[in-house]
Task: inverse folding
């Protein structure tokens, strides 16, 4: 996963004619505003952690303002893996793709490390070595080697943003559930994840583990 993500982020989007694929720069400010608006439009309850995130995130956007092609939903469920070889043969679901910040993709891909099992296949508390899954630090280091990045300052910001965005998305699902327009059979179950996701995001900010 880190190999394919690094190769995507190293694509020269201007050279291949994608200069109009999105607006370069200022990605997080625009995304925080957009998803806050989306969250407010479908809000069905007061989630204190989300209120804190809406205030905290715009005030702590890192100065790093890279622009790459960003997939927007980069996770294992959106990949086809070779049946016998350890490699990704296709990446699916480009609905949220745009010009964006590469670390938004990486943080979204790393969210399971910080989420308990019931939340979107979380890995928190699992025996990763037994499962054959690298530690979060190893996964990040592999990506950094491939893109030529030494470190990632403010990693907690990127993780919190990824969880904040997903909270807004699942809150939108709950809004459709209450409006009677949700089509998926598990929509209510997914929508109910908004509060624990926001709690997990705020836990990252304050440096606590969620159980």
Result:
């Amino acid at each position: 996963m880190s190999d394919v993500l690094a190769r995507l982020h190293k694509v020269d989007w201007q050279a291949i004619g994608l200069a109009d694929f999105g607006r370069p720069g200022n990605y997080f400010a625009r995304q925080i505003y957009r998803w806050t608006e989306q969250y407010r439009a479908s809000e069905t309850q007061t989630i204190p952690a989300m209120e804190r995130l809406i205030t905290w995130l715009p005030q702590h956007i890192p100065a790093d303002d890279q622009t790459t092609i960003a997939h927007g939903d980069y996770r294992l469920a959106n990949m086809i893996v070779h049946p016998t070889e350890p490699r990704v043969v296709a990446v699916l679901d480009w609905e949220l793709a745009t010009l964006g910040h590469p670390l938004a993709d990486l943080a979204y891909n790393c969210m399971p490390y910080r989420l308990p099992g019931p939340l979107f296949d979380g890995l928190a508390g699992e025996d990763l070595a037994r499962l054959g899954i690298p530690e979060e630090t190893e996964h990040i280091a592999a990506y950094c080697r491939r893109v030529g990045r030494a470190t990632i300052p403010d990693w907690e910001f990127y993780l919190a943003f990824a969880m904040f965005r997903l909270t807004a998305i699942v809150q939108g699902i709950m809004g459709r559930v209450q409006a009677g327009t949700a089509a998926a059979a598990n929509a209510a179950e997914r929508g109910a994840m908004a509060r624990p996701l926001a709690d997990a995001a705020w836990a990252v900010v304050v440096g606590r583990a969620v159980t």
Summary: The chain has one domain: 2-206. The longest strand covers residues 88-91. The CA atoms of residues 71 and 97 lie 4 Å apart. The chain has a mean pLDDT of 91.
